[in-house]
Amino acid sequence: MMKKYDVFIVGAGVAGLYTSIILKKGTPMQVPNEPLGVAVAEATKIGGLTQYAFIQITKKWAFSGSNLIRTLYSEAVQSKVEFLENSGVTKIIKQSNGDFKIQTTNSEFIAKYVVIATGILTFPNILDSSNRFNIGLHTPEEMVKEIVNNYGWKKVLVVGNNENSIAKLTSKLIESKQFNIVSHYLLRTNINFQSQNYGLNEALLKSYDGILFDYNSYKLQNGSTHFLNNLNVTQENGYIKTNAFGETKVSGLFAVGSVTMPISGVPEAIYSGQVTGLYVGHLLEKTTIADPSGRFPFLPREENWKSSFQHKLEQNSDGDA
Ligand SMILES: Cc1cc2nc3c(=O)[nH]c(=O)nc-3n(C[C@H](O)[C@H](O)[C@H](O)COP(=O)(O)OP(=O)(O)OC[C@H]3O[C@@H](n4cnc5c(N)ncnc54)[C@H](O)[C@@H]3O)c2cc1C
């Protein structure tokens, strides 16, 4: 028999972790012995892109992404969220009874609600070889200075999801006349889980001094949503379209974090996990007790939840809801 969950979350980055904790700890329970069944499936290892980031909030305040992930993961484990590691989700099917069937690389599951939290990359762990990677967060000119002056690279491979963007960056690097070899490699969006790191194998990596990860690509193209093609919830550039509560146009299917927002960061990922986690928790209707007032002062009291949420999706220009 397939294991059944109330909520199945795809992706254990900051957004997926936070959503899972909110579902387990933020939803007031009428019956304490009837906890929500929440699972998080992760294609590779827990943490997503945040584990590689130093989160800059203001000029005077930044904190370690890996510390944040450690804290959230330990909260989630303590709240009895079930983690399915090395479980890439390959397909999600909406069944006629309203439940979802989730196929992973190892197994199949059933869930009442699904939350997609896959970020912008299926394998952010491509950044594990960090001594040979740099993230192109700046203008091409600054990137040239950084990788020449700080790293001394002469042979550079530019990687990214958007062909135009990586080709443009590559031509700027060639124009600078600072390198012996500059090539580019398109991270295909339609990869299979066996070819982790997008086919960027050791032999290829060794022929370059370093890899420049074209961050700009990811504002243009999401590379983590190919497995949702059958559900038709993504936009042309692969980002998932939702309303303010994370609802997609498929009833019961939600999305949080950077998979929904090309320009975003850790605070936005946390916030979206909070709103969607609370919303889905209340949809499960395992409670009749109102939230203690003031607990979440920015959210309506429980008896008004349904009427106060204007959760209609915006109409597309072609009238498709
Ligand atoms: C170098 C760097 C610096 C950054 N600096 C900042 C900063 O200063 N401030 C800031 O706010 N933000 C920063 N960011 C961005 C921040 O890391 C992202 O906004 C954040 O990670 C988004 O979280 P997420 O949970 O939506 O996605 P992610 O962290 O990308 O997590 C998604 C997870 O889903 C998994 N996944 C994908 N597809 C599947 C699938 N089919 N099945 C199962 N699992 C899947 C992935 O393996 C991944 O673990 C930085 C990022 C980097 C790389």
UniProtKB/TrEMBL annotation:
It holds the Pfam family Pyr_redox_3. The chain crosses the membrane at residues 7-23. Signal peptide: none annotated. SUPFAM superfamilies: FAD/NAD(P)-binding domain. Its cofactor is FAD. Keywords: Flavoprotein, Membrane, Oxidoreductase, Transmembrane, Transmembrane helix. GO terms for molecular function: thioredoxin-disulfide reductase (NADPH) activity. Gene3D superfamilies: FAD/NAD(P)-binding domain. InterPro entries: FAD/NAD-bd_sf, Ferredoxin-NADP_redctase_2. Its EC number is 1.8.1.9. This is Pyridine nucleotide-disulfide oxidoreductase. It comes from Lactobacillus amylolyticus DSM 11664. The lineage of its organism: Bacteria, Bacillati, Bacillota, Bacilli, Lactobacillales. The gene is trxB2.
